[in-house]
Structure prediction request, 130 residues.
Amino acid sequence: MDDYLEQILHLIEAKGYARAVDISKNLGISQASVTNMLQRLDGEGLVKHERYRGTVLTEQGHRIAQAIVERHETLTRFLRLFGLDEETIYHDVEGMEHHVSRATLEVIRVLADSLEKDAELLEKVRQRLS
Ligand code: MN
Prediction:
């Protein structure tokens, strides 16, 4: 469900609307499954379907999608500090974001902030990795 909301927000930001066919393509999931999920999200008041426009997020859906995207960005920002390759980072973030608790995410956010502000410490950490 998170992946859908994340994808819908990305599509809306890029094109102004989200179509099932684009969600299906971007997530690599059948259009039938996408349609099912959109109905579920609609039932939960997170998206609504507008004729001629496609799927849009409700205010609540938008808020949740925003938090999902922020979580993705925080995890990415953290892992990028250590010189990992982008493919590994993306793959790991896609896995981690489904499991990480709010409390742990906050730890990672503070760690990322702290390491970004302390170049010396970051360099020390990076040296221990190589
Ligand atoms: Mn993600």
User: Anything to note?
Assistant: The pocket of manganese (II) ion is lined by residues 6, 72, 94, 97 (CB under 6 Å). The radius of gyration is 17 Å. Residues 104 and 110 are 10 Å apart (CA to CA). The chain has two domains: 2-57, 64-129.
